[in-house]
């Protein structure tokens, strides 16, 4: 039985934390090109989700302090934690063959928001041409792939250097 308030508060907070933290290795050396594709896809979906927040506020002219904006941001954050973990497990664990439900819900909600923006934002965003948007998406994909590829290359080079010493 926990008697003091500090102990009860600590016990309450620990109810929502994992029992133990596993180390994460995002840079697996199995297939560099597959890992670049996976991390690019991962970062693209999170960029889409972040851009949806700002475009939703702009198109529907919501105040930053509006309760729906705050609720949507909190919901996205709460959904992102298990979605990232499931995506990480899917990428690194060869025994897992399917993406987790939280990751699918995150992807579906991001795409649903994107379609709502597409439908209601036509008059606001009609100055942008499709080719301009496609160009920006291609530039983002190229830069994300380039930076992830460089990071994996440098990490593998360090790993091989350490292996040679041992």
From TrEMBL:
Membrane disposition: Multi-pass membrane protein
Write down the EC number.
2.7.8.29
What's a GO biological-process term for it?
A: phosphatidylserine biosynthetic process
Q: Which UniProt keywords apply?
A: Endoplasmic reticulum, Lipid biosynthesis, Lipid metabolism, Membrane, Phospholipid biosynthesis, Phospholipid metabolism, Transferase, Transmembrane, Transmembrane helix
Query: What's the catalysed reaction?
Result: a 1,2-diacyl-sn-glycero-3-phosphoethanolamine + L-serine = a 1,2-diacyl-sn-glycero-3-phospho-L-serine + ethanolamine
What protein name is recorded for this chain? Phosphatidylserine synthase
Q: Please state the protein's primary subcellular location.
A: endoplasmic reticulum
Identify the species of origin.
Thelohanellus kitauei
Give the UniProt family note.
Belongs to the phosphatidyl serine synthase family.
Q: Which Pfam families did the record assign? A: PSS
Q: Where in the cell is it found?
A: Endoplasmic reticulum membrane
**Domain of life (superkingdom):** Eukaryota
Q: Tell me a GO cellular component.
A: endoplasmic reticulum membrane
- Enzyme class, top EC level, equals transferase
List the top taxonomic levels of the source: Eukaryota, Metazoa, Cnidaria, Myxozoa, Myxosporea
The pathway is: Phospholipid metabolism; phosphatidylserine biosynthesis
Cite the GO molecular-function annotations of the record.
L-serine-phosphatidylethanolamine phosphatidyltransferase activity
What does it do?
A: Catalyzes a base-exchange reaction in which the polar head group of phosphatidylethanolamine (PE) is replaced by L-serine.
Q: Where are the transmembrane segments?
A: 99-118, 130-154
